[in-house]
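User: C-alpha cells in, sequence out, please.
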C-alpha cells in the first residue's frame, strides 16, 4: 500500500501540464508518484463545470450503492477505509478526485473513470470533504 503525504509541502503550483507532452518532459524521468501529481495538476486546470441536479442525484446514488458496498453504507469503513470528512480533511481535493478516477492499482479500489467525468469526480470529492453521507 502506498501512503501519500498530502501535507502542505507538496507544490503543484509551478507544474506545467504541457510538459507531459514534451519529449524529455516530466514523464521520462519521473516516478509514478510524480506522474500522479502531474495528472492531478492537469485536471485541476479543468473548467469547474456545474453538475446538473439530475446528475448529482445519480452520482449520490452511485456513492451509496457502489462506493458504499466497500466503504460502508454510511461511508464509515468496510473493505475500504472510511470516507468521512475527518479522514479526508487533509486531502487536496484534486488528489481525492484522482484517487476516485484512477483507483488504487494493486488494491480493490477500482477506477471510476468509465462512470465519472473529471468535473463529476471533483464535485464528489468536494462533497465527501464536506462530510456528505449517502
Ligand atoms: C471493490 C471495493 C471498492 C469500491 C466499490 C470502492 N472502493 Fe474506494 N477503496 C477501496 C479500498 C480497498 C481502498 C483502500 C486502498 C488502499 O489500500 O490504499 C479504497 C480507497 C479509497 C480512497 C482513498 C481513501 C484513503 O484514505 O486512503 C478513496 C477516496 C476512495 N476509495 C473513494 C471511493 C469512491 C468515491 C468510490 C465510489 C465511486 C469507491 N471508493 C468505491 C475499495 C473500494
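Assistant: Sequence out:
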Amino acid at each position: 500500500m502506498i501512503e501519500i503525504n498530502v501535507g502542505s509541502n507538496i507544490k503543484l503550483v509551478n507544474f506545467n501540464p504541457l510538459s507531459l507532452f514534451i519529449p524529455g518532459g516530466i514523464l521520462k524521468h519521473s516516478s509514478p508518484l510524480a506522474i500522479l501529481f502531474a495528472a492531478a495538476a492537469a485536471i485541476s486546470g479543468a473548467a469547474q463545470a456545474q453538475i446538473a441536479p439530475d446528475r448529482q442525484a445519480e452520482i449520490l446514488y452511485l456513492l451509496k450503492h457502489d462506493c458504499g458496498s466497500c466503504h460502508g453504507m454510511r461511508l464509515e469503513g468496510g473493505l475500504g477505509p472510511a470516507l468521512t470528512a475527518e479522514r479526508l480533511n487533509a486531502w487536496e481535493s484534486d488528489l481525492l478526485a484522482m484517487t476516485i478516477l484512477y483507483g488504487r492499482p494493486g488494491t480493490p479500489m477500482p477506477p471510476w473513470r468509465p462512470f465519472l467525468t473529471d468535473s463529476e469526480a471533483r464535485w464528489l470529492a468536494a462533497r465527501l470533504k464536506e462530510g456528505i453521507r449517502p
